[in-house]
Amino acid sequence: MDQTIVDLLKRNADHAEEFRDRFDDMQDSQRPAVVTVCCSDSRVLQDHMWENDEPGHVFTCANIGNRVSQRTDAGAVVSGDVLYPIVHTDTETAIVVGHTGCGAVTAAYDAITGDGASEPAGIEHCIGLLTPHLEAGVEALPTDVSRTEAINRLVEYNVDRQVAALVEIEEVPDSVDVVGVVYDFQDVYSERRGEVHVVNVDGETEVDVLRDTHSEIAARIERRWTY
């Protein structure tokens, strides 16, 4: 057996010992407080970024590019992965989690600018779901911006587009708070690697407005780009 599997199973045994009593109140149902939509990236630690070790608290979804939409025969719809806890478990907070240096955003940027490489069909499909949302953002980028800065600005722009999709859809009640954040491990926002920075709340992106409205988290509200 591959040593990676052996090591993972050993760690799981430790996990099972530690968590053995933590499922007693939720073996038959769940009522998560928040649903998060994160990027499928090994550097984005979905639960650990919140220091969460409580089963049933965070309903985690992940895909490349932290997308909230999927394509169906009827057209684009908000993914059932995201809607399920909102519709069925009374979850009233949704957080879209982008991250600095996102590979999916980079691939979409390259596809839009004509520099994209050929990808397997499944990856091509996922990137194709991102590119329509990012085209206007790419067009709005300053001509003198570096590639690295362009990607990180588009990370915010992509978070904004995903938040907008949730805010605008009828199935997400107005009572649900929709928050967009960026997880930073590249010292883009600060030197505190692993810190989450709020960039959007319910579609509002103006930093001063957000800080005035949400003064309790003012220090955590920051954007790289206002377009």
Automatic annotation (TrEMBL):
Is the keyword Lyase assigned to this protein? yes
Q: Which InterPro entries match?
A: Carbonic_anhydrase, Carbonic_anhydrase_sf
Cofactor(s) this protein cannot do without: Zn(2+)
Q: Which reaction is this enzyme known to catalyze?
A: hydrogencarbonate + H(+) = CO2 + H2O
- Give the first-level EC class, as a single word: lyase
Give the Gene Ontology MF terms in alphabetical order: carbonate dehydratase activity; zinc ion binding
Q: What is its EC number?
A: 4.2.1.1
Could you tell me what the cofactor note in this record states? Binds 1 zinc ion per subunit.
Do you know which Pfam families this protein is assigned to? Pro_CA
Q: Which residues bind Zn(2+)?
A: 39, 99, 102
Q: Which controlled-vocabulary keywords does the entry list?
A: Lyase, Metal-binding, Zinc
Q: According to its UniProt record, which protein family does this protein belong to?
A: Belongs to the beta-class carbonic anhydrase family.
User: Can you name this protein?
Assistant: carbonic anhydrase
What is the species listed in this Swiss-Prot or TrEMBL entry? Halococcus salifodinae DSM 8989
